[in-house]
Amino acid sequence: MFVQRFQWPPKTLTRIPISQFLYLSRITNHTVSHDPYDPPFTPLSKPTKTTHKPLDKNKNSIVTVTRSTQQELGVSRKPPLNSDLPFHFRYTYSESNPAVDPIGYREPKRFSPFGPGRLDRKWTGTAALAPQEVDEEKVRVERNRILGDPLTDCEVEELVERYRHSDCSRQINLGKGGVTHNMLDDIHNHWKRAEAVRIKCTGVPTLDMDNVCFHLEDKSGGKVIYRHKNVLLLYRGRNYDPKNRPVIPLMLWKPYAPIFPKLVKNIADGLTFEETKEMRDRGLKSLALMKLTRNGVYVNVVERVREAFKTEEVLKLDCSYVGTSDCKRIGVKLRDLVPCVPILFKDEQIIIWRGKIEEEETLSTS
């Protein structure tokens, strides 16, 4: 039996290219579609030809060409920004000590975090210096004018009740960076629509809340009207005008921290090498006075360390999961506030020694 074998596509049919389909559909639809800007059938516009000017080998000709192109494109270079704030601009104000000079820098001083040519202040690696001398009396008078008359007790209670709760929309979180420069702009942005702003502090800055309050009032010009542990309320003042707020240039990136002298010496001041080694061993074997958590609230740490030093000579603080950088920050704060001598940072454990201050005082009094 003969079976006919079919082929597909049949030989009688020929494949029509897709371009012909588009041509036929364009002809058929031309009578139906009256829109000349029909997207599927709108002819493509020809690419514009760019004319390049010939560049000479001389540098002067290159500069003139670039300037002419900037004028053609309407690009005008803005002058550097001027700010009348009467202090040096730093990345952090509460966590930096201007009295301690760094011994080195991790990046050149010409790399300003405000951007090239954006600020009329010179960047020194740690701060942007104010261009002229500051009249402190004039600044004080202007701040008192903005604050106006002191708030009454009823007004303070009303503001506290409105802004102290955790669900307040006018809140700024203050972390281990402390009072940073860009935070000042955030405060003034909240002051546009609110009389006060709630600031919640966590981490290392909570060891010294007095320092945080001082820099908030000094750099923003406001007034702290409420303080409970790590929560603050910063009031803007009676005569505050959002339209006349100070010019605060923003830092475009976080600058690298400079290199400071070593915090822990090989031999502690006032001790020999053997005594220092014995103090470290004794501190590691002792029980921890307290355990600090990451991004915790350390408001009562300084007082507890001072009380413990009345009976103990060496103390250990357990800082597990806190981080090496935060441990060193805590050691620096305790050294200045207690005061004490950090003698070891090992496995996120801080060993501090009270020093010989008390012994010298007892000898002098006797």
TrEMBL record:
InterPro entries listed in its UniProt record: CAF1P_plant, RNA-binding_CRM, YhbY-like_sf
Pfam families in the cross-refs: CRS1_YhbY
GO-annotated biological processes: Group II intron splicing; mRNA processing
Top-rank taxon: Eukaryota
Domain CRM: 149-247, 269-365
GO MF term set: RNA binding
Alphabetical UniProt keywords: mRNA processing, mRNA splicing, Repeat, Ribonucleoprotein, RNA-binding, Transit peptide
GO cellular component, one term: ribonucleoprotein complex
PANTHER family: CRS2-ASSOCIATED FACTOR 1, CHLOROPLASTIC, CRS2-ASSOCIATED FACTOR 2, MITOCHONDRIAL
Protein name: CRM domain-containing protein
Organism from which the protein derives: Erythroxylum novogranatense
